[in-house]
Design brief:
CATH topology of the largest domain: Arc Repressor Mutant, subunit A
Strand order of the largest sheet: 1-2-3
Order of helices and strands: EEEHHHHHHHHHH
Low-confidence stretches: none
Shape: elongated
Number of strands: 3
CATH architecture of the largest domain: Orthogonal Bundle
């Protein structure tokens, strides 16, 4: 097989032509490093090695871009990378990022849980569910929540003041408030206790 053309494309890719026909797009830097020059004769093994090297580099570049944008859990990063790459490509990339401390579920879980409590005002149950969805290990979730003090009633008060205080005058508004708080993981006993500070719902 002979390389007959290498044409630059967008996003750091180049189109590789073999024997006069388009073969595939590969990372430009990898093509240069493998000396895939026009006129060179290559075999299937050499081409396969270049394809693998291109995939690894593209996968690493994408992973680095994702974690530079914001912190990711291991599962979250793997889920995004597997959309474009097979397990044998992205798994070593993620493992290496873990070795370097760039992907750390313990750090991620603590930061994410703290944000959910302070910014979203979720309940402990709600935070637990969010962490579980991010792929955080159950033991680590227990550890993180054990370090995080959450005043559930105060969280409910904050949410009501910010979103639902004016909606508590009628039954429809109260039900909407209760349903929202329930979805956030708060218990009915805590919801009712706080709502009674605003209205009398003992008969409801």
């Amino acid at each position: 097989m002979q390389i007959t053309a290498v044409e630059p494309r967008k996003k750091g890719l180049s189109a590789l032509y073999i024997d006069g026909e388009f073969a595939m797009k590969l990372d430009t830097e990898v093509l240069i490093a493998h000396r895939f020059d026009i006129g060179r004769e290559i075999d299937d093994e050499t081409l396969h090695e270049c394809v693998q090297a291109s995939d690894r580099k593209r996968c690493k570049d994408k992973a680095m871009w994702l974690i530079s944008y914001r912190d990711h859990s291991r599962k979250e990063l793997c889920d995004k990378l597997r959309r474009d790459y097979p397990d044998e490509v992205y798994e070593p990339v993620v493992a290496r990022l873990e070795e370097l401390g760039l992907v750390d579920d313990s750090r991620y879980a603590r930061r994410y849980a703290s944000d959910l409590a302070a910014l979203k005002h979720l309940s402990e149950r709600g935070i637990r569910q969010k962490l579980y969805e991010k792929g955080i290990d159950r033991d680590l979730i227990d550890e993180v929540l054990g370090e995080l003090f959450i005043d559930e009633k105060e969280q409910i008060r904050t949410i009501i003041e910010r979103k639902y205080a004016r909606a508590l005058d009628d039954e429809k508004g109260r039900r909407r408030c209760v349903n929202a708080l329930s979805r956030m993981g708060f218990s009915w006993s805590d919801i009712k206790s706080v709502l009674n500070e605003y209205i009398d719902i003992s008969e409801e």
